[in-house]
Design a protein that fits this description.
The protein is mainly alpha-helical and 96 residues long. The protein has a domain of 54 residues. It is built from four helices and no strands. The longest helix has 21 residues.
Length: 96
Amino acid sequence: RTGSERPPFDPYSASRTREQDAGQKAENVVSLPRKRAPGEPAVDAYAEIDAFAKPDTDLNKGLRTIKDNDASFDPKGFVDGAKMAYEMIVMAYADG
């Protein structure tokens, strides 16, 4: 022995450590959105899209399809990013 060995495994000390950890405040807990209560009015998921793109247009339908697949989709951020990408492409082409 060199004196640097681990102490023998104690299966009961691990449960005591978990109990001590459970009493500590969890600072990295993320609150998730709650389910809508019965009788609570539904929030129109497409209101932001309808305000941004006219209803019954191809753009509106495309943005709705993306929103259906990604609840965190932000149409304004998406279009702003597309505008920046377009400008970068045009400027790169103009610069040669």
